[in-house]
Design brief:
Blueprint: H1 3-18, H2 22-44, H3 49-53
Helix pairs in contact: 1-2
Length: 59
C-alpha cells in the first residue's frame, strides 16, 4: 500500500471522527481524504505539489 493510499485512508477516518454524520461531515471527510492523498503522493514522489503552488513568473 502506497503512502498516498494510507494518507487517503487516514484523512477519511479523521473526517469521520471529526464530524459524525450529515452532509457537512461527508464534505469534511472528502476534503481531508483528498488532502491526505495529495500529501501522501507528494511524499512518495508521485505528485509535485510545488509545481502547482508556485506562481507564474511575470514577464
Amino acid at each position: 500500500m502506497t503512502t498516498s493510499s494510507l494518507g487517503l485512508i487516514a484523512g477519511l477516518l479523521l473526517g469521520v471522527a471529526a464530524a459524525a454524520g450529515g452532509f457537512t461531515g461527508f464534505l469534511i471527510a472528502l476534503v481531508l481524504g483528498v488532502a491526505g492523498y495529495l500529501l501522501g503522493g507528494q511524499r512518495d514522489g508521485e505528485l509535485d505539489l510545488s509545481a502547482l503552488l508556485r506562481g507564474r513568473g511575470r514577464g
